[in-house]
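Meet my pick.
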Amino acid sequence: MIVRSIENQIKDRLFKGKAILVFGPRQVGKTTLIKKIVSEIDATFRWFNGDEPDMRLALTNTTSTQFKALIGDAQIVVIDEAQRIENIGLTLKLAVDNFPNIQVIATGSSAFELANKINEPLTGRKFEFHLYPFSFEELCNNQGLIEEKRMLERRLIYGSYPEVINNIGNEKEGLILLTDSYLYKDLLMYEGLKKSSLLHKLLVALALQMGSEVSYQNLGQVLGVDKNTIEKYIDLLEQVFVVFRVNAFSRNLRNELKKTKKVFFYDNGVRNAIIGNFLPIANRTDIGALWENYLIAERVKYFKYQQLYGGQYFWRTAQQQEIDYLEERDGKIDTYEFKWGEKKNPKLPKSFQDAYPDSTFKVINPSNYNEFLT
């Protein structure tokens, strides 16, 4: 079994008098991870699955007496797919406040429901973690750096979901099943989402312009809806961990683009499944976008798992000067260019260097990307 980066972090926070929350997309291994942790602890536990109607009913608006009857003598209570349970935040608050010696763990694949229902009730009462498809570092720790680097082209095409990693040779089938059966499951249960065909068309449009600046206005015109609807749908896709947005960086220069955004996918394989393109790297015209998406998505995982805090951006001016990616942490700016071809040797734009003289610059290519992701 591939060890997940947050496993020891979760173990270190057990029985500290707070709920443990694990967010992440469906099918990334949240249930598997929590089962592993619970099985290695000498403690009794009770497992509730929010996908089951009777368990949802039992945990909705429960009292402390009813909750105690439900869990019996369990020392650990796991609520899987907790976003399905109405008022789950109040139930978790009740458990933490009334049973401080019991460890409550909740998993959720849908942040727009779970996070909105828990933030206020659980203020100061929770530890939050995120789990994503396997990270580069997790895969390196499992099979070694050399072997994982040999798999780079497969990662760019098929991504890093457990279903893909564990079924070499059947990656395409696994990804199609994932996107057809699980990707939209939480969104389509959301009462405010009525146009599933629009959702798919939007995902295709985002996949085709992955790594490019996104205009809600232009997308709306192409898809026949207003820009506010496009923004709402992208926000929902972000909250169920399908895509994420990266903002433009702007501090000093008048001609820096300030309001533009790029949209990336958490997993290359999901992106390629949406547009039905699993061609090998040698036959791709979008290798630059695949390479950029892979590196930025992996860097997002790295930030979360290492508990790093800082801004992640791209940079562009009205004169078309640009930097693929930059990070701002503790007052320091680090900039990066992503090049699949190792012979290319770009330089930091002079206007940026003049405006931010203390910034660093590095080109990331297939020969050195491991240093960027570990």
